[in-house]
Predict the 3D structure of the following.
Amino acid sequence: NCVFRSLNKMNIVTRLSALCLRKSKMQQRHQSSRRPAVPLGSRILTDPSKVFEHNMWDHMQWSQEEEESAKEKAAENSVVKVQWEDQEILPEKRREELKTEDRSSENTKINSTNSFSHKNEILEEREKYWKKNYGGGSTSVQGYVYNKKQAKSLTDNPQGENCGEELDRLESFPGSDAAYRILEVGCGAGNSVFPILNVLCKTPGTFLYCCDFASGAVELVKSHSSYNSAWCSAFVHDVCDDALPYPFPDEILDVILLVFVLSTIHPDRMQGVVNRLAKLLKPGGMLLFRDYGRYDTAQLRFKKGHCLSENFYVRGDGTRVYFFTKDEVRNMFNLAGLTEVQNLVDRRLQVNRKKKVKMQRVWIQSKFQKPLLLSLNTPEETTERHPYS
């Protein structure tokens, strides 16, 4: 039974990876809406004279000359930077709010130290709860092992709130009864949400969370005929706001989709966003990432005066975009405590057959996994491991 569930869940991750590709395909708005004759990723250009026979060619290899030309174009359009006072990335009012939050955070640390004994009392109550509901000194929740220290970090409450209220909140969150949970960050109007739901509806015990910064986009998702709160929860969320809670506890997600979202965030904020998302994953959970790669056509097309900082630009509509290398991506997710499963540069040749124009597209596609928790208890206390490892 465990093997069957393992294969079933791995199949979900594989299908979600494919959905990432589909979403990127929709975002690029290819010239033809017809379904490709061959699977995405298997169309290789072997005869340059036939380049205009299809809209897209996969696994393109750049020559040294093409690489150097791309670097020169990026350097040229980055010479003139947008003045700091014109960037308005972080309004003055918000800067003051952040300073206030930082001071409040410091006070919280001091207060939490002073109330250490009270926190121990709360922890003891939580341990009683874990033992009552799951049994043993080592607790297995959704098939994962939590010892005393891990259980504390799962529901840590430095503010000293009532333990019973906290546990009630954790029990009553949307999707609390699900065995497999997914979060899509930056869901927009639901281009990926509903294909994912079509997959999940065939797999009982699954639940999808989806969030977006724009309230209008979230309302569109909720108003869709396929939306059902029984297996989906859409909510407005600013991933850059570390103080803003998610509508569910940490360490409960099996999969996070982060597709063409991180590139819209200021580079100074990216690591914080990744760190926070990593906390939401279960041990063994997977984060699927796809975004713009360095020297993509979109980067090379920027005119002078649109560069905010190195490899970070502002479009005409005011939205921002950053262009990654796979090493940058690896470092960010590793710093967040995630392990690399896949991290590749996806180079494709996009073709406008009518205008006879060729465009070199570059994306980064990655999978990062949260390591399985090794029990901190003694061997006598527990030898249980995650059933899907």
